[in-house]
Amino acid sequence: MEKRIYNFSAGPAVLPEPVLKEAQEQLFTLPGVGMSILEISHRSKKFDEIIANAKKDMADLLGVPDEYAILFLQGGASLQFSMVPMNLMPPVNKADYIVTGTWSQKAVKEAKRVGTVNISATTETENFKRIPAQSELKLDPEAAYVHFTSNNTIFGTQWMSEPEAGNVPLICDASSDIRHKPLDIRKYGLIYAGAQKNIGPSGVVLVIVRKDLLERSQSTLHTMLNYKIQAENDSLYNTPNTFGIYIISLVGKYLKGLGGLEAMYKMNKDKAGLLYDCIDNSGGYFRGHAEKGARSLMNITFNLPSEELEKKLISEATKAGFDGLKGHRSVGGLRASIYNAFPRQGVADLVDFMNTFMKNNG
Ligand SMILES: *Cc1c(COP(=O)(O)O)cnc(C)c1O
After folding, report:
1. Mutate to test the pocket of ligand 1, among 74, 154, 175 (most ligand atoms within 8 A of CB)
2. Residue 244 near ligand 1, beta carbon < 6 Å
3. 68-73/205-210 β-pairing
4. Taking the domain 260-361, which CATH number applies?
5. H/E element holding 69?
6. Fold assignment, 18-257
7. 103 assigned to active site
């Protein structure tokens, strides 16, 4: 088999190797079933078991209380930009959005089609290098909800703790940092996350929603866009992404085996620390985009003294087996995405590589 390289892609992203191997072993026939996961009915007993396990592991890992529903839907996080306001904005038809990057802006764009959007705060004029402080938020106590993006995948910033929204339900796009540390789910009305960063493969979006909020979904909504109906049908109103949910169940089992989210958080702080230390000890050669107090543990964004050197580093790194380091065009430079499944050795090797590059190109 060909050697695997280090995959720093922002998403779809690296998956745990033991999960890939288990899926490979079981792909031809699921044990005891005689058919592949790609061939079985979503109404079969075996699939019932798979989705139940995926949900249970999600609930155990994140400590999801009984008064919340866990859904595995389709259309990515991007469809949630629409489903959230369609289901939750009426009847007051206004909501607060905190804008900390490109994905928050996209969420705002869809919400405006449904009702009035109040931008509670934005750090756009600073190219999203920081997260607003609680004192900067202009929150409307009558808003239907407050929406924020917990980790800004493109800019490499992250909320250290949730914004406080009082009695207004807090809604979070946690696509790029869900399950990187333990959360207090009770602080949230709804959390959504595209699976392809920290949950599993693309094609599934996780939605965790407090059940009382399902009463806001009006019967005039299209069926597939209605949270209440999706919850009543346990994510099986139509054919779900059966393979994606199967891989999610394997990743969940694997994370539990590693010691759950407390253990993940320790590993993530350690891994990100290696790279941030390299940046901070480079005498300004490497410059982090995010302000120190807002640094993401998942996406580490940085620049070099010139665009030319950035290109050179990316090109040499690619040849050396470090893939996906090119930054998003809105920040430039480099971005190392190091989600839960990214190996510590890969970060350590990248740090060595960067230090050598700096010596040779200083
Ligand atoms: C990747 C990402 C998205 C988009 O997810 P899709 O599943 O491709 O729609 C949305 N929000 C954040 C924070 C992301 O990182």
Report:
1. 175
2. no
3. antiparallel
4. 3.90.1150.10
5. strand 68-73
6. Aspartate Aminotransferase; domain 2 (3.40.640)
7. yes
DSSP state of 11: S
Q: What is the DSSP string of 77-114?
A: HHHHHHHHHHHHSTTTTEEEEEE-SHHHHHHHHHHTTT
Residue nearest ligand 1's atom 14 by CA: 175
Q: Hey, what's the torsion of the CAs at 17, 18, 24, 29, to 10 degrees?
A: -160
Give pLDDT tens digits along the chain (362 positions): 578 999 999 999 999 999 999 999 999 999 999 999 999 999 999 999 999 999 999 999 999 999 999 999 999 999 999 999 999 999 999 999 999 999 999 999 999 999 999 999 999 999 999 999 999 999 999 999 999 999 999 999 999 999 999 999 999 999 999 999 999 999 999 999 999 999 999 999 999 999 999 999 999 999 999 999 999 999 999 999 999 999 999 999 999 999 999 999 999 999 999 999 999 999 999 999 999 999 999 999 999 999 999 999 999 999 999 999 999 998 999 999 999 999 999 999 999 999 999 999 98
76 lines ligand 1 (CB under 6 A): yes
Q: So what's the pLDDT on residue 362? A: 87
Domain locations along the chain = 18-257, 260-361
Distance of alpha carbon 101 from alpha carbon 154, whole angstroms: 7
85 lines ligand 1 (CB under 6 A): no
Q: Distance (Å, rounded) from C-alpha 46 to C-alpha 275?
A: 43
Q: Whose CA is nearest to atom 10 of ligand 1?
A: 77
Placement of tokens 């938020």 in the chain:
137
- Which of 72, 78, 206, 248 to mutate to test ligand 1, by most ligand atoms within 8 A of the CB atom? 78
299 CB near ligand 1 (under 6 Å): no
What DSSP line would sit under 164-217, residue for residue? P-TTSPEEEE-TTTTTSS---GGG-SEEEEETTTTTSSSS-EEEEEEGGGGGGS
Over the Cα atoms of the chain, what is R_g? 21
Assess whether the C-beta atom of 176 lies below 6 angstroms from ligand 1: yes
